[in-house]
Amino acid sequence: MNSVTDTRVAAAGLDRMPARKIRADQWILNTISYFWITFVALLCILPFLLILSGSFSSERAILMEGFKLIPAEFSLEAYRFVFKFPEQILRAYGVTVSLTVLGTALSLFVIAMCSYVLQRPDFKWRNGFSFFFYFTTLFSGGLVPLYILIVNYLKLKDTYWVLLLLPLVNVFYILVMKSFMRSIPAAITESAKIDGAGDFTIFIRLILPLTKPALATIGLFVALGYWNDWFNSLLFISDQRLYELQYYLYKVLGNVDGLKIVAEKSGRPVPDLPGEGLKMALTIVVTGPIIFLYPFIQRYFVKGLTIGAVKG
Q: How far apart are CA 102 and CA 165, in angstroms?
C-alpha cells in the first residue's frame, strides 16, 4: 500500500511540475511581449508628440534648437495664423466633415450591394462583372480623359458632387468585401427565401448586420480617403466655398512660402511668419479629429482585415 501511495504521489508531483514550468514560461513570454509592444507604441507616439510640441514652439526656437518633446519657447503664433480667418477654415471643416460622413455611408452601401451580387453563385454573370471591375485596377484612361469627362460632359466642375462621387467606389474594397461575404453560410439566405424574404430584405436585414467587421474596416479607409482628399479640389474646384480642409490648408502653406520668396527676391525684410511651426500646426488641425474615429471601430478592425484578406 505504501509503495502504491508513494507512486501516486510521485506521479502527481510530476504532473504538477510541467504546469508550473508552463506558467513560468508564459509569464516570461508575456513580460517580453508587453515590453516590446510598449516600446513599439512609444516609437509610434514619439513623432506625434514631436509634431504637437513643434506646433506650440516659436519659429525662432525651432530654427535654432530644432524640435523637442517640450517646447523651448512656447508660442501660439502658428495656430493664430491658421485661424486668422476662422469662417474660412470652419467652412472647409464643414465641407470635409459632410463629405466624409455622407461619402462613407454611400460608399459602404454601394460597395456592399455590389459585393453581395458578385459573390452569389446564382448570378451567372458574376465572373464577367468581376473581371470587368478587376480590369479597371490594371488600366485606366488617365487624368486628361477624366478631366474632360468631368468638366465638358458631366458639367460637375465647381460642384459638391464631384468631390462626393469621384472617391465613392474602390474596386479593391469590393474584392475585400466580396471575399468576406463568402464566409457567410448560404443556408442563411436560403432559409430567408423559404420564409418569403426578397433579395433586398435579405441584404438589409441579414447580410449587412453580419458584415459589420468588414464594413467597419473598409469604412475607416473610405473615411480617411475622403478626409485626406485634396487632389480633386485642386483639379475641379475654384470656388473657395467648396474648398476641402486639406486643400485649404495646402493653400495657406503655399501662401506663406510665396510671401517669403517674394520678400527675399524684392530685398525687403522677410516678415516674421511661422514656417516649420505652421506645418506642425496644420498637421494637428488635420489629423486631430479623424484620430478619434478609430477607437469606435477598433474591435471590428482586426477581424475585418484578416477574414477579408484570407478568404479566396
A: 11
Domain holding 37, by residue range, is: 2-55
What burial class does residue 88 get, using C-beta atoms within 10 Å of its C-beta: 0-12 exposed, 13-18 middle, 19+ buried? middle
Does a structural domain hold residue 166?
A: yes
Same domain, 29 and 87: no
Distance (Å, whole) CA 175 – CA 134 = 8
**Alpha carbon of 234 to those of 97, 115, 120, 164: distances in Å?**
18, 31, 40, 14
- Per-residue confidence (pLDDT) for residue 152, from 0 to 100: 92
Tell me, yes or no, whether 147 and 237 share the same domain. yes
Summarize pLDDT for 203-234 with one digit per residue, the tens: 888 888 888 888 988 988 899 899 999 999 99
Degrees to nearest 5, angle at CA 167 with 163 and 173: 160
Cβ neighbours, 10 Å, residue 281? 26
pTM: 0.78
